[in-house]
Specification:
Order of helices and strands of chain A: EEEHEEEEEHHEH
Number of domains of chain A: 1
CATH class of chain A: Mainly Beta
Oligomer: heterodimer
EC number (chain B): 2.1.2.10
Helix content of chain B: 10-25%
Strand content of chain B: 25-35%
CATH architecture of chain A: Beta Barrel
CATH topology of the domain at 11-53 and 141-231 in chain B: Gyrase A, domain 2
Number of helices of chain B: 9
Distance between the termini of chain A: 31 Å
CATH topology of chain A: OB fold (Dihydrolipoamide Acetyltransferase, E2P)
Largest interface: A-B, 13 and 19 residues
Order of helices and strands of chain B: HEEHEEHEEEHEEHHEEEHEHHEEEEEE
Shape of chain B: globular
Largest sheet of chain B: 6 strands, mixed
Strand order of the largest sheet of chain B: 10-11-12-9-3-13
GO molecular function, one term (chain B): aminomethyltransferase activity
CATH architecture of the domain at 11-53 and 141-231 in chain B: 2-Layer Sandwich
Helix content of chain A: 10-25%
Family (chain B): Belongs to the GcvT family.
Strand order of the largest sheet of chain A: 1-2-3-9-8-5
Keywords (chain B): Aminotransferase, Methyltransferase, Transferase
InterPro entries (chain B): GcvT, GcvT/YgfZ/DmdA, GcvT/YgfZ_C, GcvT_C, GCVT_N, TrmE/GcvT-like
Largest sheet of chain A: 6 strands, antiparallel
CATH class of the domain at 11-53 and 141-231 in chain B: Alpha Beta
Structural class of chain B: alpha+beta
CATH superfamily of the domain at 11-53 and 141-231 in chain B: Probable tRNA modification gtpase trme, domain 1
Radius of gyration of chain B: 20 Å
Radius of gyration of chain A: 13 Å
Strand content of chain A: 25-35%
CATH superfamily of chain A: RNA polymerase II/Efflux pump adaptor protein, barrel-sandwich hybrid domain
Number of strands of chain A: 9
Chain lengths: 127, 371
């Protein structure tokens, strides 16, 4: 999977989404992994679980602290990145690609207008 | 209490090195550098790490009869220490709880050098002064403190201050580091061989830069400092013990000199001795133990500990991921009946039961240089 930063959408929770049709791949940003520090454990949801926007979907434990992944939009988890169970460090090494967390089937009519573009997100983190 | 955040003399260097600065015990300190906590931790064990611990309190107390006077506050045989020998000790309160843990070094018969925790230093000094009237206190605000720790620490130190490399664990000497007068002890809080260097504020940057210029040395932040001490099974004041905890409950009986225990030549005679010595004689109902954790989910401070029937029996007081053993490790308090190594218990993390097993500490072998 090759993606460009410009294809991505971002949230204020420092997550990124790659939206393709009705599905979204979700991960955390470079900024977020940097803040979190070395990830040692990732707790992933079960495929099929449904979430409202803002629900806790996954938990990330770094050497420093615990953090969470929240559902950026409402939907159902259709795939999880099993690789993270054995290699949680992928979140640090490749947050935008190999370190993705979940793929979600988005609910109909979810509001994409709150999502930020790359440049908006850069501005947001610079604040 | 002042609201202003304090800086050590190495603040600008930390920033230059890319340190992520966080408030800690009133100081702005680096929690990590670009290498990251895990990388710093592993580097320190395998090679050498440099820590700025200048936020800690350093003081000198002088006066005739000081050793005996200090023995009223510290359950250690201070008279028996050799010149330039130091020891780990707890400062007890009237109730036999722990006010702080510290390092005390005998410079002369009537002169001791102390290093105390940053968060406790004002309170410790007030406590010491109130019990040691007539003695002379010199608070070393003009001195910084560095720790150089790790397998290669002695190899590095040899290039700058050879006399320090002759020292064995828990001994110190006055010497020069690149021309700067320093007091170096063979000690630290990582479980590794290493040194602590007390140096004037004006010279500390030069010393730090000289050490960092060595290929073996990386700067280490508070994050790795914590994971290193946790793997070494060492207590963190305010977390693994406090004013309610007796040193016996905290599994620090080794820090109490034999001569200060019941039937010893200088038994009791320190604050809270009755409780502490009763705890030794009659046993305690709970004690601090180490835990190995099943799986990779770190069990952190505050997590409840439960027995096989689901009853809460204790609490985790320190926990995290141990990069060297590549697994989570923790410590906490449990009833004596559940404190034997290999006892299986569970800890609750986000309503999940995590299997934890009582384990001997340290979790990694100590590599102190004992000669």
């Amino acid at each position: 999977m090759v993606m460009m930063m410009s294809d991505l959408k971002f949230t204020k929770d420092h997550e990124w989404l790659l939206i393709s049709g009705s599905q979204a791949t979700v991960g955390i940003t470079e900024f977020a992994q940097e803040q979190l520090g070395d990830v040692v454990f990732v707790e992933l949801p079960e495929v099929g679980s449904e979430y409202s926007q803002g629900d806790e979907v996954a938990v990330i434990e770094s050497v420093k602290a615990a953090g969470e992944i929240v559902a950026p939009l409402a939907g159902k988890v259709v795939e999880v990145n099993e690789e993270l169970a054995d290699n949680p460090e992928l979140v640090n090494e490749s947050p935008l690609q190999d370190g993705w967390f979940v793929k979600m089937e988005l609910n109909d009519g979810v509001d994409l207008s709150e999502l930020m573009s790359e440049s908006e997100y850069q501005e947001f983190t610079a604040e | 209490m002042s609201e202003t955040i304090l800086k050590t003399p190495l603040y600008d260097l930390h920033v230059e090195l890319g340190g992520r600065m966080v408030p800690f015990a009133g100081y702005s300190m680096p929690v990590q550098y670009p290498l990251g906590i895990k990388g710093e931790h592993l580097h320190c064990r395998d090679q050498a790490g440099l820590f700025d611990v200048s936020h800690m309190g350093q003081l000198i107390i002088r006066g005739e009869g000081l050793a005996l006077a200090l023995e009223k506050l510290i359950p250690v045989d201070l008279q028996a220490l050799a010149k330039n020998q130091q020891t780990y000790a707890v400062l007890t309160n009237e109730e036999g709880g722990i006010l702080d843990d510290l390092i005390i070094c005998k410079w002369e018969e009537d002169c001791f050098f102390l290093v105390v925790n940053a968060a406790c230093k004002e309170q410790d000094i007030a406590h010491l002064k109130s019990h040691l009237e007539g003695f002379d206190f010199e608070i070393l605000e003009d001195r910084a403190l560095l720790a150089l720790q790790g397998l290669q620490a002695a190899e590095v130190m040899k290039r700058f201050a050879e006399p320090a490399c002759e020292l064995t664990f828990m001994n110190g000497c006055h010497c020069e580091f690149d021309g700067a007068p320093v007091y170096i002890t063979r000690s630290g809080y990582t479980g590794e061989d290493g040194f602590e260097i007390s140096v004037e504020n004006a010279s500390v940057e030069k010393v730090a830069r000289a050490l960092l210029a060595c290929d073996e040395v990386e700067p280490i932040g508070l994050g790795a400092r914590d994971s290193l001490r946790l793997e070494a099974g060492l207590c963190l004041y305010g977390h693994d013990m406090n004013t309610q905890t007796s040193p016996i409950e905290a599994s620090l009986i080794w820090s109490i000199s034999k001569s200060r225990r019941r039937d010893g030549a200088k038994a009791a005679g320190f604050l809270g001795a009755e409780r502490v010595l009763n705890d030794i004689e009659l046993g305690v109902s709970r004690k601090r133990v180490g835990f190995l954790v099943e799986g990779r989910l770190p069990v952190r401070e505050g997590a409840g500990i439960f027995d096989a029937d689901g009853n809460q029996v204790g609490e985790i007081t320190s926990g995290g991921f141990g990069p060297s053993i590549n697994a989570p490790v923790a410590m906490g308090y449990v009833p004596l009946s559940l404190a034997k190594p290999d006892t299986q218990l569970t800890a609750k993390v986000r309503n999940k039961d995590i299997v934890i097993t009582v384990a001997k500490t340290p979790f990694v072998p100590q590599r102190y240089f004992r000669g």
